[in-house]
Amino acid sequence: MSSATLTKPSTPTMPNTRKPFAWLEQSLTLAWRNIVRIRQNPEALADVTFQPIIFLALFLFVFGGAVAAGGWRGYLPFLLPGLLVQTVVFSTLATGISLNDDFAKGVFDRFRSLPIARSAPLIGAVFGDVVRYVLSIVILMGAGFALGFRFQNGVANGLLACLLVLGFALALCWVWVWLGLKLKTVQGVQGVGFLIMFPLTFGSNVFVQTDTLPSALQAFVNVNPVKHLVDTMRALMIGEGSLQRPLLYTLAWMIALVAIFAPLAIRTYRRRT
What we know:
With about 270 residues, this protein is an all-alpha fold. The protein contains twelve helices and no strands. The two termini are about 40 Å apart.
C-alpha cells in the first residue's frame, strides 16, 4: 500500500453556527447573492421599474378625470400613496417565486451542505428583495414628483410613510416565502399569489374612497390590511384623515403576518431539507 493511501483524511468543516450573530452574517451574505442575481438579470426588475410608471399614467390620465373633480391633478395626491402601496405589495410576490425556482433547481440542496444556519437562506431571500422594494418606491415617488406631487404633511412624515410601506412589505413577504416552499411549481405560486393579491389591492381604497363602494364590499375593505396601510400613508403624506387608528391596525397586521408565517415558513423549510 502506498504512502498516499495512508494519508489522514482532512477533518470536515463544522457548521459555524455557534458564533454570536453568525446567522445574521450568513443571511446578509446570501442576501448579497440575490442582489448579484438582480444585477446579472436586470430585465427581472421590469415589475418594479416600468410597471409602476405605466400604472400611474394609466390610472391618473384614463380615470383621473372621471374620479376626481379636479381632473388628474386633483386625483394625483389621492392616488399616489395608494398606488405606492399596491406596487410594493405586488413586488413581494417575487420572493416566493424566486425561492420556489431555487428549490426546483436544487440550490437549497447545496445550501444544506454548507456550514450555515438553517434559517439563513430564508432570511437572506427576504433581505435581498429589499432592493426591489426600495427601487419601486424611488421610481414611483420620482414619477409622482415629476408630475407635481408634494408631501403636504412635511418631508419627515413623507419619508416615514415610505419606511412604513417598506416594513409592511418585509412582513408580507413571509407569506410568499411560506407559499414558495409549500407549492410545487412557480406557476402554482404565481396563480395562488394573484388570487390573493387582486382582492387585497383592488378590493380596497387604493383608487376610490371606501364610502363610494357597495356596502357588502365596504365590510371586506374595512378589514383589509391594505386599506389601513393606505389610510396611514395618506395621513402621513398629504395629511388626509386620522393617523392613530389606521397606524395601529397596520402595525398589528405586520406583527401578525410575521408571527404566523415566519414560523410556518421555517418549519416547512426544515421539512423539505
